[in-house]
Amino acid sequence: MSKVAIVTGANRGIGLEVSRQLIKEDYFVILACRNEEKGKLAEDYLGSQSRFVQLDLSKPEDISNFIDFMKGEYPKIDLLYNNAGLIYNKFELTSEGFESMIGVNYFGAVRLSLGLLENLEAAHGRIVQITSLSMYLARKFNINDLHSEKNFTPVSRYNLTNLLRSMFIVELAEKTSNLSIKLALAHPGITNSPSSRPFGRTAKVNSYYKRIWTDISTGAAPVLQAVNDANPPSDKTYAPKIFGVYGKPTIKKLSTLAYQRELRKELWDYTFKELNLNKI
Fold it and tell me: Which pTM was predicted?
């Protein structure tokens, strides 16, 4: 029987390529995507070992419905790959009043991960969380300003979300050390994700990063190693070896801020309070 994987944001880029590779490794892949049309195109492209299930990480009811669906249909989940996220979004708030990149990239991944712990534990599974080179550019933050327009720029807030989700995985690994779930982080470097979808493309991609970006297989390789390594570290990240951009995947340290225990505790407490969750 196939192993079951969930890949968020699976309709394009790294998410689509990782899904394709997982199917080759005999996974049945749940394509958790916000856009129904693009999600179904991805399902058609990937074939019978995939299934589109709608998920909008900015909407708590969507996440709750998705978790309920998974608990009913797939009580054992071998892999959750948190790939989806907003990049360089203008300032806007979700329906809950969260800044959109914090709400989707960080809170969305937190809610989904915590909500599926039972399913993952039942399969002795793992969570692989996407992060980014941009986490190294994030600065120490004021926990009370995460949803404020004060000092907001799309770049700085995106950088921060990658630091936050890296810190969450480090802390979650400590909190769940009694479980059989493995946790890992992976960042793809700078990858030509926008042009990688083999269907539904209508426009050329113009970006400064075209000068240095790598192909999709280079970006997917760190994620796949995080999926397949027997004992992945939860306090480091898989990344391309050379400058975090080029070459085969290796293991690298996180931002120094991710190792500040008190800062992680402050974020953990704040997160559970904001999301009205019971601590684990």
Answer: 0.93
SS3 of 14-74: the string is HHHHHHHHHHHCCEEEEEEECCHHHHHHHHHHHCCCEEEEECCCCCHHHHHHHHHHHHHHC
CA distance 7 to 84: 8
Tokens of 43: 């399902």
158 carries an active-site annotation: yes
Query: Could you tell me which residues are beta bridge partners of residue 126?
Result: 79, 182
Encode the chain (280 residues) as per-residue pLDDT tens digits. 689 999 999 999 999 999 999 999 999 999 999 999 999 999 999 999 999 999 999 999 999 999 999 999 999 999 999 999 999 999 999 999 999 999 999 999 999 999 999 999 999 999 999 999 999 999 999 999 999 999 899 999 999 999 999 999 999 999 999 999 999 999 997 776 554 445 555 445 444 445 555 678 888 999 999 999 999 999 999 998 876 667 899 999 999 999 999 999 999 999 999 999 988 8
Cα 137 to chain center, whole Å?
A: 18
Catalytic residue among 27, 74, 136, 158: 158
